[in-house]
Amino acid sequence: MGVSTVTNHNDNQGYDAVMKRRNEIMKRAVGIDYAAFEFDNIGFDYERMMREVGYTLSEVIAIQRSQGVGNTPMIKLNRLTELARKLSPEGMGAQLFLKDEASNPSGSFKARRAAVAVYQAKKLGYEGVVAATSGNYGAAVASQAAMQGLKCIIVQETYDSKGQGQPEIIEKARKCEAFGAEVVQLTVGPELFYQFLIILEQTGYFNASLYTPYGIAGIESLGAEIADQMMAMTGRYPDAVVCTNAGGGNLTGTARGLQKRGADATKIIGASVDLSGLHMASDRDFNRKSFTTGHTGFGLPFATMPDRSDVPRSAARPLRYMDSYVTVKQGEVFYMTEALAQLEGMERGPAGNVSLAAAFALAMTMPRSATIVVQETEYTGAGKHIQPQLSFARQNGIEIRFGHPDEEVPGNSIILPSHPSQMKARPLELVQLRKRLVENLVFATAKGGKANLSDREIAFLADESRFTKTAVEKIIFG
Amino acid sequence: MTFKKGTWIRIKRVVMQSEERTAQIPEDTRRVPLEMWVKGFAEQDGHLGDTICVRTLTGRVERGEVVEIEPVYGHDFGQFIPEILTIGITLRKILDGGEHCDES
């Protein structure tokens, strides 16, 4: 690339000028020419991009093994399964398994994505990496940059206008700094992206985005490990894998990995915390949510408009893989986090347990012979634990009490279930989401209008949404 | 509070004034400026509240108001939340028939 030592100083750092340079900054910072995979008006050859730009599964595994990433334990949750069976009708209560991703070097599955992204940055000759994230991914990129010897800047949305930040985000900043990264912290707002572009341009570093083919290929190893471990432990592939869904990469990569192992019958279930009614760019709502990721505020917009990310074309396309999508309440996730500690002796961070809460509820509706894999855990500690998070919520005027989880109003209350039998996985209308995805792809991006869509573009929309071509045409043309 | 050149400090700067913010954001966010905090080594001696430059860990230079000298992490495990304590007791009672908590 030859960009490693170049520092680009552009005097015009006004908002409009920087946003206008967005595409050239991105092209230089990711090293991918996305236009090469686009065709006609809206078409995009996703599989060709994953093939040509990404790495094969065996390459991904080799890169990760060299950095101590992956190969995490699969743990049979005996006591939680027993609890689910006590609360289920006769013959019901699926066996629960948990993939303990907290044992990765940075404390979450995000190390898998970061390992490949940082490897690619180093291979292309970049001096450093930048990532825009308030979450576990920042710690993962910082950890991998430390391991692979690159510089690292993490840009996070941290505070509201009063300078108050979620304890969980403050802890993530500390962890990034513990790995030697520079952390740039901002108040609430989508203009974070503007500051992110300035830093990319100024440093000439690599954009270690969550949404490049590297970031997604990195998770395929997780899906493959789940398939292999379940085959070894139970003699077959799991009936269901529950993935916490936010930006969609976790689910996309896991599903692709399972498919590459031939686990085609395994149901892929997305799970998000219900934060309906809270606006993700609102200064007031910022500290009224007790989850900073794994929630519907990311899950729904990213599923139905995947290319809204920090790269021109996202490699995370969850609706291509999702068999169902459920929501759980904040109180249910906090409750299950405590249950995991009390009944399984595993203290793990709350955000990673979104899928655990959903899986526990689903287990009560599936036969005993079935197996469900909870696909991740994350590290825990000061700030990033149910106690400081509930304490912070209470200080911010959020009501916390026992009751029925259905009574929870995001931003106003956190209702811990009075009884574990009240735990529920509430299905979202997947057909509606897939329909919205088609509409967004057509109406938001079609320069030539819907009448000009080629047969190949209709086929692309069918792949994206898992509708037939006829169904896609019906959505577009009525 | 004073500091010497080379001290690890935290600065704050307004990136965008409220009137410069993009239109597609909620009203409450548009009413406030976009602010940024970074940490670095002071490029000169100074006082808390001064506007100075720092050199960050990656070697970038950023300018802003000094808000903290040798900044600390203040996050912890928060206040006691009595509800949490009862969850394990309830669950063990359901699972183990009350043998661990038959006093209640």
TrEMBL record, chain A:
Q: Which cofactor does it need?
A: pyridoxal 5'-phosphate
Domain of life from the UniProt record: Bacteria
Q: Tell me if Lyase is a UniProt keyword of this record.
A: yes
Q: Which UniProt keywords apply?
A: Lyase, Pyridoxal phosphate
Q: Transmembrane residues, as ranges?
A: none
Q: Which GO terms describe its molecular function?
A: lyase activity
Positions the record marks as coiled coil are: none
The Tryptophan synthase beta chain-like PALP domain covers which part of the protein? 66-374
Pfam families named among the record's database cross-references: PALP (PF00291)
InterPro entries in alphabetical order: AKP_thiolase_beta, Cys_Synth/Cystath_Beta-Synth, TrpB-like_PALP, TrpB-like_PALP_sf
PANTHER family assigned: CYSTATHIONINE BETA-SYNTHASE
Name listed for the protein in its UniProt record? PLP-dependent lyase/thiolase
Instruction: Say which species the protein is native to.
Output: Fusibacter paucivorans
UniProtKB/TrEMBL annotation, chain B:
Top-rank taxon? Bacteria
Q: What is this protein called?
A: 2-amino-4-ketopentanoate thiolase
Q: Which species is this record about?
A: Fusibacter paucivorans
The record lists the lineage as: Bacteria, Bacillati, Bacillota, Clostridia, Eubacteriales
